[in-house]
């Protein structure tokens, strides 16, 4: 590794340290403890565990209700609702929504 590349890496490391420490907030809490707080970005995964099965059951029930007649219609509605709920649960498992949020993390120092 040549000197120019090493100098660039050291500069980047120092600037990264300065940047991250510049983002920290230090204060003394009501108990006299010195606290350092930083804002961190956190990955989130959105998941509504009940929405998929409920929507699936409703749609499956409506579709099942269109089939058959008499007591067969009731059975088809129940089977459609159950099948829709299972399908909705699978959709929930396969669905990945992600985003980011920020949170403040504090730790006691000194």
TrEMBL record:
Keyword Signal listed: yes
Localization: Membrane
Highest taxon, organism lineage: Bacteria
Major location category of this protein: membrane
Domain Glycine zipper 2TM intervals: 54-91
Secretion signal, residue range per the UniProt entry: 1-24
Keywords: Membrane, Signal
InterPro entries in the record: Bact_OM_lipoprot/Surf_antigen, Gly_zipper_2TM_dom
One GO cellular component term noted in the UniProt record for this chain: outer membrane
PANTHER family to which the protein is assigned, alphabetical: OUTER MEMBRANE LIPOPROTEIN (PTHR35603:SF2), PTHR35603
Protein name (record): Glycine zipper 2TM protein
Lineage, highest ranks first: Bacteria, Pseudomonadati, Pseudomonadota, Gammaproteobacteria, Nevskiales
């Amino acid at each position: 590794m040549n000197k120019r590349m090493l100098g660039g890496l050291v500069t980047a490391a120092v600037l990264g340290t300065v940047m991250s420490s510049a983002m920290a907030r230090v204060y003394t809490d009501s108990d006299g403890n010195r606290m350092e707080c930083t804002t961190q970005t956190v990955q989130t995964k959105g998941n509504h565990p009940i929405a998929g099965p409920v929507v699936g059951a409703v749609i499956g029930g409506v579709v099942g209700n269109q089939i058959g007649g008499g007591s067969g219609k009731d059975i088809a509605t129940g089977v459609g609702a159950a099948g829709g709920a299972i399908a909705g649960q699978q959709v929930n498992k396969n669905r990945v929504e992600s985003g980011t949020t920020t949170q403040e993390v504090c730790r006691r120092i000194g």
